[in-house]
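Incident log, structure service

09:12 report received: a user says their structure output differs between two submissions of the same chain.
09:20 pulled the input from the user's history:
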Amino acid sequence: MAGLWRAFLMLAAASLISLVLVLMITDRGVDQDLVPVYWTKLVLTQDQTAQVVKEWYGVNPPRWAMRLAVVWQRANPAQWWWLPLLMIAAMFIISRFSRRKAGR
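09:34 re-ran on a clean worker, output below:
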């Protein structure tokens, strides 16, 4: 049971870290001055991300919410489904390597 709980925590941590990294990298490529233009494009194309933000914050959401919607749409997190698996593999390899080094 402890192994299953550890695997779940590892998957949750890897997913969260992967999402944050993808959003941070995508955010660096979005120009702050063009966020309203990108937001208008999302609204006009009736993108699902814009619809969710409009439901929560109304027709004129705060600038940070617009930026987050633009970054989320550009990042397309579903496209990066394999990244948490890669991170789990890296964590597993590093933990095995460190256990071997500590045992010597």
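09:41 both user submissions now match this output. Likely a transient worker issue. Closing.
09:42 reviewer note: Helices lie at 2-27, 35-44, 48-57, 63-75, 83-103. Residues 2-27 form the longest helix (26 residues).
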